């Protein structure tokens, strides 16, 4: 075979390999094309970091897929401690819930007009042992989360509380005993009655948040039962569904994520037609992304957070940990970038 022919075949093979490699990796759906204006203009990821657990950091994105650190990777609000969760209220203000540790007695809430300056709004100290059918609750409050329900014109605040201590022989029973509790409030200053259990089924759940889409409420949960051949959904992200804010909720659907994932976050795509569900592979190993066109699924996992550009269909800054993602306006995005600056990549 002539040398020129061999070179031509090699060149053609290189082109075909490149073509098929790209063809095997379609870009995630949900992005806008050309001059089309996105319905969701920008996104904020409020999170902690691997080296500074429980403190507040920001990253932002314009497409919900590629995220950049703000403030050169430094804290954006020194007073905050907790597992960041931000909710926009009916007054247009933003509220963030946290606590100084799982053994703290109170949940702390701050308020902001612009996501830049936060002021203390209230503290809530739940009487955990007054929870109906949960008098054996331990004094532990994990990952408080907020959601404003327009039909009832009330906030619901959820968190997880266990009822069994871990032991040397079985440290896992502490986590399996976690149950999701909630309280309602009109203004996040006064709270209605005692805490209540959100689900009437008996299963370990943490990191639960609620969203209403259409006529249904969806509770996004982490199944906190340890995975085995007899409980294959353990330590995964799942969804339960109800027609009412307070339930009853269906048994959770099949797993959205692989095992040993937690801290789910849900955002709509820029064109508002697709859902992006992020979750952390712990302890701080990586982030996964599952995608669906409705919250009933089916879901598939995108390739990303590998730090190999050919494979990354989404990317987050290194060492980011638990938090929340919310949609923001381009104006708010610009204000955040102006205040904190995008972190320069090396």
TrEMBL record:
Domain of life: Bacteria
Signal sequence range: 1-23
Keywords on record: Signal
Coiled-coil residue spans: none
InterPro entries on file: Glyco_hydro_beta-prop_sf (IPR023296)
The protein's name: Glycosyl hydrolases family 43
Organism of derivation: Flavobacterium phragmitis
């Amino acid at each position: 075979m002539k040398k020129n022919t061999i070179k031509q075949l090699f060149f053609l093979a290189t082109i075909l390999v490149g073509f098929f490699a790209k063809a095997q990796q379609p870009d995630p759906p949900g992005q806008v094309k050309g001059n089309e204006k996105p319905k969701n203009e920008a996104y904020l990821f409020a999170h902690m970091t691997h080296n500074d657990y429980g403190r507040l950091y920001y990253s932002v994105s314009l497409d919900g897929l590629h995220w950049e650190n703000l403030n050169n990777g430094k804290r954006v609000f020194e007073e905050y401690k907790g597992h960041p969760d931000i909710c926009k209220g009916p007054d247009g203000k933003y509220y963030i819930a946290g606590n100084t540790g799982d053994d703290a007695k109170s949940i702390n809430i701050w308020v902001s007009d612009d996501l830049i300056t936060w002021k203390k709004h209230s503290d809530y100290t739940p009487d955990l042992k007054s929870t109906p059918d949960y008098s054996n609750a331990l004094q532990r409050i994990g990952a408080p989360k907020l959601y404003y329900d327009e039909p009832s014109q009330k906030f619901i605040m959820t968190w997880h509380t266990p009822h069994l201590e871990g032991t040397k022989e079985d440290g896992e029973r502490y986590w399996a005993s976690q149950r999701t509790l909630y309280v309602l409030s009109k203004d996040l200053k006064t709270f209605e009655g005692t805490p209540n259990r959100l689900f009437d089924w008996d299963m370990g759940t943490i990191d639960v948040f609620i969203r209403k889409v259409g006529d249904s409420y969806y509770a996004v949960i982490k199944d906190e039962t340890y995975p085995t051949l007899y409980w294959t959904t353990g330590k995964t992200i799942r969804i339960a569904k109800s027609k009412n804010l307070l339930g009853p909720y269906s048994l959770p659907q099949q797993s959205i994520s692989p095992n040993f994932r937690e801290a789910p976050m849900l955002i709509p795509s820029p064109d508002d037609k697709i859902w992006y569900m992020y979750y952390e592979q712990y302890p701080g190993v990586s982030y996964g992304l599952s995608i669906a066109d409705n919250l009933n699924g089916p879901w598939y996992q995108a390739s990303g957070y590998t730090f190999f550009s050919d494979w990354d269909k989404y990317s987050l800054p290194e060492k980011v940990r638990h938090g929340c993602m919310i949609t923001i306006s381009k104006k708010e995005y610009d204000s955040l970038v102006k205040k904190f600056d995008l972190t320069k990549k090396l």
